[in-house]
Amino acid sequence: MKGVQFLVDEQGQKTAVLIDLKKNAELWEDFYDRALARSREHEPRENLSTVKERITSAKRRPHG
Predict the structure, then answer these.
(1) The total number of structural domains that make up the chain
(2) DSSP 8-state class, residue 43
(3) pTM for this structure?
(4) Separation of alpha carbons 45 and 61, rounded Å
């Protein structure tokens, strides 16, 4: 793949990757999104209906 280089150790095992962000911005975005999701996997969850209700309630309240 153009714009992607792997660094290898003495045994030839891939240990790091260098990504050309100008050529592979989408690849970096996918990697970052996955890392962010993984870092949040133990955070408490809300179901969709609860979130929708909270948003709807906030829209009904006057601002100020």
Answers:
(1) 1
(2) S
(3) 0.50
(4) 25
Cβ pair 30, 19 in contact under 8 A: no
- 26-50 pLDDT, tens digit per residue, is 888 998 999 999 999 999 999 999 9
| Contact (Cβ atoms closer than 8 angstroms) between residue 18 and residue 5 | yes
Q: Which domain range does residue 30 map to?
A: 4-60
**Which residues fall within 8 angstroms of residue 28, CB to CB, at 6 or more apart?**
19, 21
Q: The tokens 């690849």 sit on which residue? A: 27
How many secondary structure helices (H) and strands (E) does the chain include?
2, 2
> How far is the CA of 31 from the CAs of 39, 45, 50, in angstroms?
12, 22, 29
Q: Alpha-carbon distance 1 to 38, whole Å? A: 25
In contact, 25 and 4? CB cutoff 8 Å: no
